[in-house]
Amino acid sequence: MSRDGLLPPLFGRVHPRFKTPYVTTALTGVVVALVAGLFPIATLTQLTAMGTLLVIHLGVVAGLFITLPYGKFAHVVYRYAALVRYAIEQRRI
Length: 93
What we know:
Strand content: under 5%
Largest sheet: none
Distance between the termini: 63 Å
Radius of gyration: 26 Å
Shape: elongated
Number of strands: 0
Structural class: mainly alpha
């Protein structure tokens, strides 16, 4: 991602021997160590559970939007709107 310009070039440095992004790995390790040292373990386990629930929720919503054009759910919305419009027009007559 640093080659694309999404991240600074510092994060794209590759170790000459191991061919891994060593700056990013070290920075991630420092951040995780600080978070683990500053917060109680109970709080961190709750945050992990929230992340898991968020991933499941986003998966379900993405599945709904992917299958939406092929299901009849979209048709129900348009049918309801058409019925409401028809009822409003009938009241005016």
